[in-house]
Input
Amino acid sequence: MSLFKKIFSSQKKESLDKGLEKTKTSFFSKLGKAVAGKSKVDDDVLDNLEEVLVSSDVGVDTTLKIIARIEARVTKDKYMGTDELNEILREEIAGLLSETHTGDATEIHIPKGKKPYVIMVVGVNGAGKTTTIGKLAFQLKKQGYKVVLGAADTFRAAAIDQLQVWADRVGVPIVKQQMGSDPASVAFDTLSSAVTQDADVVIIDTAGRLHNKVNLMNELTKVKRVMQKVVEGTPHEVLLVLDGSTGQNAFEQAKQFTKATEVTALAVTKLDGTAKGGVVIGISDQFQIPVKYIGVGEDLEDLQVFNKYEFVDSFFTIKG
Ligand SMILES: Nc1nc2c(ncn2[C@@H]2O[C@H](COP(=O)(O)OP(=O)(O)O)[C@@H](O)[C@H]2O)c(=O)[nH]1
Ligand SMILES: [Mg+2]
Output
């Protein structure tokens, strides 16, 4: 591994550790209480552990899988100490997540031969779509890709302005129309412009306001159909942005959106501001759709390519 890579990954680790701080503090304090006065992992400890995992937003189904794995280990090793629990959790959760064959990338991957590669970003209002687009554009540009943004969230003037601010910060072109215009028409213009400019990646912002599934479905379907008139097979990626600080509600949103449109990747944001970071473990386990990115802050650099091993490692490491 080159020195640069080492430096980069240690920076990444630092910001991940920092981003997960609230989650870890809360988790370990609960775990401490769960094993207080117990030296061995017995049924009581397992019961308490189940509660800790559920209350840390890992989700019931995933928690049950984790407990079953630990129970199996306790059956083999009856004298398993509670001091080992941390390490055991780390191993078993990594093992569980390794059954899904995603979340092991370390940098953004844009497939060759799809030019422009079109990413449509969806999610409810306030989830962090526009911010994630800005951060993503920053990283893609740094990796050498030519990026164009499309402001297809035309519902509020502020949404268009906000994307413009990010475009200026990052230094990438943006295609927009005035507030209230047809999102599909903005998407069409964006792709046309990207083709003319010979851009590598297009990222389309969308509105999350559509309060019912039929509306949402119709609008996203229309945006897709119109984009396909410019570039065949687009969008190549539909990225659903979920607000991690909403915990179980993020699961619900994922369920709703996957019913409304074909989501191909997930981003979980705002992990830095919450103790509910365990939600990423549950979402990675429960959905067939890979978590590709996590948001760990509001700055340009605060979007990470999700790597489940790095995540679990950071989650279960207590700073000495
Ligand atoms: N702390 C933190 N805040 C974030 C993160 N991602 C987004 N936000 C904030 O969440 C709010 C809503 O984000 P925005 O991108 O406007 O959401 P949108 O409505 O889905 O486009 C803004 O104040 C962002 O700064 C994150 O990873 N960490
Ligand atoms: Mg927005």
Q: What stands out?
A: The mean pLDDT is 92.
